[in-house]
Amino acid sequence: ILRSVGGEVATLTDLLPNLERIIGRQPRTGSAVRGVEAQNRFHFAFRQFVRSACTPDRPAVLVLDDVQWADEPSLDLIQALTDAEGDDDPPLLFVMCYRDNEVDLSHPLSFLLSDLRSAGVKTVEIKLDNLRKENVNDLLADATHMRPE
């Protein structure tokens, strides 16, 4: 992680303080920045962090639930992680769950998904309907090792 992220590791630990448990407290290098430059530094550092954690031998799945409530900086980070940069993209699969009845065409998530598709990122949409009572009964029976009634 330290080799991959380099001098920007403090950018990560500012927002992910528990990371210090893994890499230890790191000195801050460089000057403090704000606004777009701070966001760019964080995106770079986070991409490098993900690249160090995900390898062809250790692919990862990142599950994000209730993405319809994600703020724009979070959606920007998803965009930054999926921006194609050649062969060094990490083997990372995003599973983004959201309530489609809360996401219309003007929702920021709709714009993100459209941008991802336009950039050639492969997306698959799976719509889930409500489970029937019988299905819930079967799931509970299986989980509790009981016979369904």
From TrEMBL:
Residues 24-95 form the Orc1-like AAA ATPase domain. Pfam families: AAA_16 (PF13191). InterPro entries: AAA_16, Hybrid_Histidine_Kinase. This is Orc1-like AAA ATPase domain-containing protein. It comes from Odontella aurita. The lineage of its organism: Eukaryota, Sar, Stramenopiles, Ochrophyta, Bacillariophyta.
